[in-house]
Design goal:
Blueprint: E1 3-5, H1 12-17, H2 27-30, H3 41-56, H4 66-86, E2 90-91, E3 95-97, E4 102-103, E5 107-109, E6 113-119, H5 122-131, H6 139-149, E7 153-159, E8 166-171, H7 174-208
Parallel strand pairs: 6-7
Antiparallel strand pairs: 1-3, 2-5, 3-4, 5-6, 7-8
Helix pairs in contact: 3-7
Length: 209
């Protein structure tokens, strides 16, 4: 059963709510495979960061760059434009947790919808608009949000000031969600093993001393 946690995204409470569990924004990392069947370095780094959170009880350092900061500033504008375009009301949400996984949709819509807002530079927005399909690079995150939040559809709204808002809809892809679920389960099992190994290493050091 999904639990909605009321908090501001990127607040201290939000970081603590998602501590130690894989979240939708990183589901593509969880599913990543390295070259020629080797382990993905990005996936391993994420695994170790979550292990560190579990062991220390402290959230990992948040990562932010200029594009992400721009996105936060533009999100309210994009949400207003989406509401006007679709005649829908958006309900902000902090964090949704379901077992050992979580997600932070940009808004809930009605009883079974979500909105995910992306800001893209004009040339990238035009590319997405002319392609006319749900951006495949966001599939893991958005299907993951539908899975965690137990919702049926998601609108992705791609925004840049002065450009037309591009909105496209995805519905639940149950086959993909099963694959995602298997990947998250395997990741969490590996996370448990890493945490156990690190704690055993620390105990062995203490006994040796």
């Amino acid at each position: 059963m999904a639990e909605v946690i009321s908090c501001d995204q990127n607040s201290a409470e939000w970081f603590r709510a998602r501590m130690g569990i894989p979240t939708a924004s990183e589901f593509s990392t969880v599913m990543a495979k390295g070259r020629s069947g080797a382990e993905s370095k990005t996936r391993q780094t994420y695994l170790y960061k979550l292990a560190g959170e579990i062991i220390t009880g402290e959230p990992m350092e948040s990562y932010s760059n200029a594009h992400m900061e721009r996105g936060k500033l533009m999100e309210d504008e994009a949400r207003t434009a989406y509401e006007f375009m679709t005649d829908q009301s958006c309900e902000r949400v902090g964090f949704i947790r379901s077992g050992r996984k979580g997600a932070s949709p940009d808004s809930l819509v009605g009883s079974d919808g979500l909105v995910e807002i992306k800001t893209k530079l004009p040339h990238l927005l035009i590319e997405a608009m002319f392609r006319g399909e749900f951006p495949p690079e966001h599939k893991a995150q958005c299907q993951g949000q539908l899975w965690v939040a137990e919702r049926e559809w998601l609108d992705i709204a791609i925004y840049w000031p002065g450009m037309p808002l591009f909105v496209t809809t995805a519905t639940r892809d149950e086959a993909y969600i099963r694959e995602l679920s298997d990947s998250v389960d395997a990741f969490n099992a590996e996370l448990d093993r890493v945490v156990e190994r690190v704690r055993a290493f620390g105990n062995a050091r203490k006994e040796a001393a």
